[in-house]
Amino acid sequence: MDPWSEAQLVETRRQFFSRGRNALGYAALVRLFGDRTAGWAAASGESFQAPHFAPKAKRVIYLHMVGGPSQMDLFDHKPKMAEWYDKDLPDSIRQGQRLTTMTSGQSRFPIAPSKFRFSQVGSAGLWMNTELLPYTAKCVDDMCFVRSMHTEAINHEPAICHMQTGNMNSGRPCIGSWVSYGLGSMNENLPTFVVLVAEPTNKEQIQAISARLWSSGYLPGEHAGVSFRSAGDPILFINNPPGVSPDLRRMQLDGLQKLNELNFRQVGDPETQTRIRQFEMAFRMQASVPELTNVGREPESTYRLYGEEARKPGTYAYTCLLARRLVERGTRFVQVYLNNWDHHSNVGGRLPMQCKDVDQATYGLINDLKSRGLLEDTLIIWGGEFGRTIYSQGGLSKENYGRDHHPRCFTLWMAGGGVKGGTVYGETDDFSYNIVENPVHVRDFHATILHLLGIRHDRFTYKYQGLDQRLTGVEETRVIRELLA
Q1: Rounded distance, CA 428 to CA 423, Å?
Q2: 45-233+290-483 domain in CATH 3.40.720?
Q3: How far apart (Å, rounded) are the C-alpha atoms in residues 458 and 454?
C-alpha cells in the first residue's frame, strides 16, 4: 500500500472532520444541537472566536513573580506577630501540614515578623508595605487584592505549572493559549499570545523557567506563546538571512505553502495548517516587530512614568513598557515572568531589590494604560505560585530571616478589566498560615479570569483523548463574583 493511502486509513477523527467531506452533515448537526457542537469544532482545531457573553476585559497582562512572593512582607499585614518574635509556631496552627525538605528537618519553627513598615493607603485605608512599594501604594484604588489564594502544590515546578495551566502535570495548555484559542487575534501582524522573561537585578536564587509553561499542549500549535528575547533579535529566525530579499522570501513562502496545502489534502493533519499560518505570521512580523520594539520613540514622559530602567532591554520596567505597546497594538495575552522571589534566606537583603525592580514600573503600567483608556478592558494580574511561611528558615534576627514555601495561603492582586478596585477578598489567620474567610482555589481564579473575558469556564472545552478538556478541570469550581465591578 502506498504511504498516502495508508495515512488515510489510519487518520484520526479530527483529521476526518477537517477534510471537509462531511460539511453538509456537520452544518445540519450545528442547527440541531447548537452549542453542544462546540466540542466538535474544537476537534477540528478551530477556535470559538467569540465570547459566550459580553466581556469586561478584552486582553490580559499577567505578571508572574517566579518563586513565590512573601505575602506577610508585602500585602498581608500581621501586626500581632511582633509579640511572637522567635516563639515557635503553635502545633494548633500548623496542624501537621506537609513541609518541604528545606525545613522539615528543623528542630523548631520560630516566628519571623515582617521587618518592613506597613501603612494604610487608598480611599478604603488598605494595609500594605509602603516602605518597599511606595509607587504601588498609589494604585490601590485600582487594585483588588485576593489574600486567600491556595494550592496543593508545595514545590515550584508543579506550583507554577498549576497556576499557568490549571494542572500540576506538564503538557497541558497554559491560560494564554486557552485565551488565544477561545478569542483569537486582534492583530494579524502580531502574535495573539506573547511571553516576556524579565531579568531581576538580584540573581541569588533563580528558578528554572521553561518554554513548556507557555506551550499550547493539546491545543493547535498556533496558540502557543511566542517568546520575545531581551537581547539581539526579539524573535529568532524571523529575519531574512544575508542575500535573501523580501521578494525572494515571499516567493519561497508561496512555494512552501503550495507544498503544505498538497500535503494537507493528502494527509489531513491540522498541524499542517498551523504550519502554514505560522510561516505567514513570521513574514508579517518582519515588518511589525521592529516598530513594536523600537521603544526609543517613546517620549521622555514615558520614562519618568516607568523609571529609567525602562530604557534597558530585559529589565522588568522594559517588559512592562513593551507589554503596554503590545496590548495597544492588539496582542490578546501578554505573559511576563520575573524570577528570584524564592526567599529561603536573606529576605532583608533581597526583597528590597525585588520590590525596587517592580514598584515604579508596575505603577507606570497601570497609569499608562489608564491614561490611554485601555485599563478598563485590560486585566492586569500580579502574583506568584504560592506564598511563604511565617516561621523562619535558617537563622533568625529582627533584621533578617528566610521563609519557606507555603501553599495554604498567598496573596495576588488584579487591576482593570472589570475587577472591583480598592477591595480585599479573603482573610488569613494572625499567622498568615491558614485561610479563615473566603478561600480561592487556583481553578476558581482561572474561572474568574475567563468570566471577565466573557467565557463560561464550564462550556469552554477542547476534545482530546475522548474527553472534553477544560482549563478549570472537572472539580467544583466557581467564579468569584465579589471581585467583579
Answers
A1: 15
A2: yes
A3: 12
What Å distances lie between residue 346 and 72, 78, 391, 400, CA to CA? 15, 20, 14, 6
Cα–Cα distance between 467 and 274 in angstroms, integer?
22
CB atoms within 10 A of CB 334: 28
Name the strand (E) or helix (H) holding 392: strand 387-392
- pLDDT digits (tens), the chain, 485 positions: 555 556 555 555 555 555 554 444 544 444 444 444 444 344 444 455 568 999 999 999 999 999 999 999 999 999 999 999 999 999 999 998 889 999 999 999 999 999 999 999 999 999 999 999 999 999 999 999 999 999 999 999 999 999 999 999 999 999 999 999 999 999 988 999 999 999 999 999 888 888 889 999 999 989 999 998 876 777 766 677 787 787 877 787 778 888 888 887 887 777 787 777 777 777 677 777 888 888 989 999 999 999 999 999 999 999 999 999 999 999 999 999 999 999 999 999 999 999 999 999 999 999 999 999 999 999 999 999 999 999 999 999 999 999 999 999 999 999 999 999 999 999 999 999 999 999 999 999 999 999 999 999 999 999 999 999 999 999 999 999 999 99
Q: Hunting for cell 496542624 — which residue is that?
A: 95
